Amino acid sequence: MTATAIAEPTFPAVGTAGVRRSIRVGVIVLATASLPLLRPAGPGNTGLADVGLVVALLITVLWLSGRSQRIRVPYAWPVMLTVFAGALATLVSGGTGLPLIQDVFVLAWPFAVANLARDAEMLMVFVKSWAYSGVVWGALLIIGVSAGQPWLAGTSARDGVRASLTLGDPNLAANYFLCALFVLRACQQPRSRRWRWFCCAIVVTALGLTLSNGGMLTLLIATELGWIFSITRRRGLAPALAISALLIGLSTVAVLSINFNAIADKAQQSTPLLRDSIGRQGESGGSRSTLFKVEVHMWLSGDTLLGIGPGQVKNTLIAQDAPYAKMAHNDYLAALVERGVLGAGAVILLAGSVAVRSRRIARRGALPPDYAAVVPRPELLGALVVSIAVSAALYETLHFRHVWALLGLIAVLELATHRGSDAGRTSRQT
Fold this sequence. Notes:
Largest sheet: 2 strands, parallel
Order of helices and strands: HHEHHHHHHHHHHHHHHHHE
Radius of gyration: 22 Å
Strand content: under 5%
């Protein structure tokens, strides 16, 4: 189905309905544009981005309370299972309840998005806010680096020349720009191809300036998968399988023939850009390998299947005088070690839910015309989701606010594919 153009959102100048709609627009723009504002950090690792989310949550509740709308709570079961598993682990092994509050708090993102941006016009506001604010933040990072302004670039003595803007961590910044890039491409904003490629260049440059090896890897994965998924959507499965086989073959040859350790060693003696990116590969890979081994040993040597408690990996390693004491840096191991088998089950349930939704919205003709006009290339969101699943093995992406905003976007689109099938229901939990 060919996506048809949708008119830009228009809002009545006067009247209660116009005011309410304008408030929704303002809240969506505020919450989305403030996603990178995580530094300076407040209590409990909060940031200015959370102010926008709290406002969005309050407006969502007020808006729903005054209307006979179906309440949408996407991913409720995986999150509640996560909270339940964390509560059991906390009771058995000790710890604080702060991570449990944070678990519930992240559910606010898809809840707010799924309800505030439930119609095509508000969804257009959401994706345009995300796409254009990502370009603006990327331009600010480039300016900060070019002008040598650490406060704007987000560089520090700890990270060298790696930029992180106001996100506090280069890997987190890289993941934010990756999501912004693929939202921009999926919704094809700006509509002009020339301007769209210009915006893409800004965001990719900003991602590159983070010097995140994981970010560049996931960018490559998402780009290749986006190409394959697009071929599948347009031409069918056979051509996509042929392209996939070719890419797998080329990747295998590259891995077997290129001495990445030698390249990393040479980069360590080179310019700061190479030293703090490729040159970190050996040290970064070694530290994550060590952390993986000690976490696996921690799980195997534990005396309970319920886990050691949310956020307790680093404290446990310190108590054990481990040679490398860090946070889990892996969503899958973190769920298993900290929340036990129930926590691991919650992650599997969440991954399955996201995968099913992503598959549904990527089918040709699945989205209604007004939603397809807002997101003409939904298959790119599926490619982005897979790349995030890969990056979840490198750092804890389920703590990233923009990841949950992305899950909210996917939930809105999936609900639109069968919006007539649940008519008459007063609420919807999935």
